[in-house]
Amino acid sequence: MSAMLSNEQQAFLDHATTSFAVSDESLNTIVTRAHAELFRGLSTSQGSELLMKPTFIRPPTARPSSVSLGMSISASGSRIRITSITVDSNSTPLRTHTQVFTMQSTTQNVFDFAANCVREFVQHTDSSLPVGVTIGVPCGALTEYARGLHACDVGRKLCAAFVRNHLNVHVTSVTHGAVSALVASRIQKATQVAAVFDGGVNAAYVEQLGQVCKLRVSEETKSSLVAIDTDIGNFGSRVLPVTMWDRRVDRESKSVGRVFEKLVGGHYMGEIVRNLIIDMVDRRLLFTTCNVQEISVPYSFHSAYMGPIIEDLEAVDAVFAAEFGIQ
Questions:
Q1: Which of 325, 324, 326 is nearest to 301 (CA)?
Q2: Which among 67, 151, 69, 73 is positioned nearest to 113, based on CA atoms?
Q3: Using CA atoms in the order 245, 246, 247, 248, what is the torsion angle rounded to 10 degrees?
Q4: Which residues of 135-168 are buried (b: 16+ CB within 10 A; e: fewer)?
Q5: Which letter, b or e, does each residue of 283-319 get, where b requires 16 or more Cβ atoms within 10 Å of its Cβ?
Q6: Mean pLDDT (10-residue bins), the chain, 327 residues
């Protein structure tokens, strides 16, 4: 690609750059509003953009030993990753084993599918294995396979599926990725906040129960620590600056809203870039003699492509040639 830009190309890029710019004043306003929403979410279950849901999963006080399982279920319920972790008496990992399963049938019950995956993974065990379950969305926003269910319902249904399939496995927790990362990291160090920026965006942190004003807690438990699911991906509908490309991605997504998530989430950043590219194509500012059918497909430009391009602009040609057939 030529480094020389026409006046029209430069004008478009200048407009895009200005549209995505955020001033220090705007950042201060965003931080102030985020703090207000965090405290409001701790105080009431209504009126706040942030869920701020106590998970009732406390940071570990004892280090694990022997063997345990971790199960990660994707947002669609069609992909399950299981990992076994064997640790010694000092909680030092000795060995891990991971296997990924994909559901082939659209009619299979996700809980029975999970049980089948565990059976294939474990094969045989004489002792009961604990399994912590991670779901690919905040537990307050479970999707199709668990619509209307809470995390406790998912746990019960998984346990029932394990019993039906005669598996010596018991569910210890059902959380999303941010809470799981927070609890896991605190086994070795005093991590206070964990965040995920993948298909969705969320963060969890450690809070004293006494600070969660929407809960009635006894004096004895006010100082107890608990992991808080912030649902931070839903923040920003009234304060975050959005561009025309952000609004388009939101409008054409499966679920309108969750502004912060769509601004920074790995699932959406590539789509924002693709929309910028398509706008340049439609204005005949880019790829005027190329076949652009493949890059015209929504979500075909993955966020992962941006890394190599940012590190080395010479990678642009290779990415577009290999992924979209554009020379």
A1: 324
A2: 73
A3: 50
A4: bbbbbebbeebbeeeebeebbebbbebbeeeebe
A5: eebbbeeeebeebeeeeebbbebeeeeeeeeeeeeeb
A6: 79 96 95 94 87 78 65 74 79 80 76 89 74 71 47 79 89 84 80 85 91 86 88 91 95 88 91 96 94 94 90 86 90
